[in-house]
Amino acid sequence: MITANMKVSDIVKQLPKAADIFRKNRIDFCCGGDISLSEAIHEKSAPIETLLEEINQLDNESSDGLGLDVQYLDNRSLINYIQNKYHKPLEEEFRNLMPYITKVAKVHGERHPHLIEMKTLVMKLRDELIEHTKDEDDTVFPLIIEYSDNPTEELRAQLKPHIDELESEHDGAGDMLKRLREITNDFTPPLDACGTYRVVYQRLAMLERETFQRCTP
């Protein structure tokens, strides 16, 4: 449970996606984050009750579905779960994360050149994963549902090249994530890293975990 007495920087450490809420409300979670949330509230931010409700909702969402055993879902339910659990949040996460990555690369890239490569890799990863999920939503999932209802060899033959291509794309995304882990020293920020720098590394680690979880049968 996040409270008004917690430091802004500590809230972001516990819930990295809270940075999006703070940015929207013009609350400094980076170098000015060493004060409590109640102290950080100002005339341009939402009331503290509203902020706490939004932030604690993030905390609830982070634990949603942990007890779900997907092996017992039918194909329609599994597809719906994948779309709601991974596809929609993935697009939103890249949209929210890229401004932080761009800022960190711009501000610290000269001193830490790997951040430039990090930005390039994440942009490429974003493009590939979003295209991948769109292909699943538009083509593969409808074919799977159709095959479930009518398992013919013709439909099976239509599905196979799509499945093969998706597996190849999984491998490509995995390679990019491994490279990101390598150049970021296992997503470990420097000791003097600012709050935004730390948020980027935390959320890249979360992205890696969720992507591998999604790609693991």
From TrEMBL:
InterPro entries: Hemerythrin-like, RIC_family, ScdA-like_N_sf. SUPFAM superfamilies: SP0561-like. The keyword Iron applies. Its main location: cytoplasm. It is found in: Cytoplasm. It holds the Pfam family ScdA_N. Residues 84-197 form the Hemerythrin-like domain. The keyword NADP does not apply. GO terms for molecular function: metal ion binding. Keywords: Cytoplasm, Iron, Metal-binding. This is Iron-sulfur cluster repair di-iron protein. The lineage of its organism: Bacteria, Bacillati, Bacillota, Bacilli, Bacillales.
